[in-house]
Write a structure and sequence with these properties.
Layout lengths: L4 H23 L6 H7 L4 H8 L2 H25 L4 H14 L4 H15 L6 H19 L8 H21 L3 H17 L7
Helix pairs in contact: 1-2, 1-4, 1-6, 3-4, 4-5, 4-6, 4-7, 5-8, 5-9, 6-8, 7-8, 8-9
């Protein structure tokens, strides 16, 4: 059965994202060659421009994919915890720990902000923020978290995890910085609890 034009376009888009991900991970954004990347997957620069506009657009798509994977992993870890508060704390901690992954470091935490700007404004981060806000609303409703504004709490909690991950990635000594970042993140987060645990 013949593929539709839409299926072909979606396949090309996926191939370009995969090639971009490899190139940005191996060489970094600045050194990644769009000619080499498109040739690797048997497509033209025109296909790249059609799907992403430019190299920056491709990076945004790659960052969105990786950030989405990070969020899904963190949420899965949180879902495995005994209670909703422990789950929320585990999600933030897992996100920070993912900053040790070399591809996450280079693409999402170093090149991403340098090229795409403030990560808190990325669509993938907004999605994470909404999930966190809903979790905080439930925890407030259950009396576990103080009755604070849920959006404010979600923004501050998400921002703390993101900035901790950015710090670890940029530190040059991630193994030394990671435990300090996690300890401080957890101490800040527990300030939201209605009663100490």
């Amino acid at each position: 059965m013949a593929r539709t034009r839409a299926e072909t376009m979606e396949e090309n888009r996926a191939r370009l994202i995969a090639a971009g991900r490899r190139a940005f991970a191996d060489k970094g954004y600045a050194a990644a060659s769009m000619d080499e990347l498109t040739a690797e997957v048997g497509l033209t620069r025109g296909a790249l421009y059609h799907n992403f506009g430019d190299k920056k657009g491709l990076l945004a798509a790659v960052v969105d994919q990786i950030d989405g994977e990070m969020a899904a992993r963190a949420q899965a870890i949180g879902a495995g915890m005994d209670d909703a508060w422990a789950g929320l704390l585990a999600e933030g901690t897992a996100y920070i720990e993912m900053s040790l992954d070399p591809d996450v470091q280079r693409i999402v935490l170093l090149d991403g902000p340098a090229v795409l700007g403030d990560p808190s404004k990325w669509p993938s981060q907004d999605s994470c923020l909404q999930v966190t806000q809903r979790a905080i609303e439930r925890l407030i409703g259950d009396g576990i978290v103080k009755p604070v504004d849920p959006e404010a709490a979600a923004r501050l909690l998400s921002g703390a995890a993101l900035n901790a991950a950015l710090w670890v990635a940029a530190s040059g000594d991630a193994a030394r910085v990671l435990p300090k970042a996690i300890e401080a993140f957890q101490a800040l987060a527990t300030g939201l609890l209605a009663e100490p645990r």
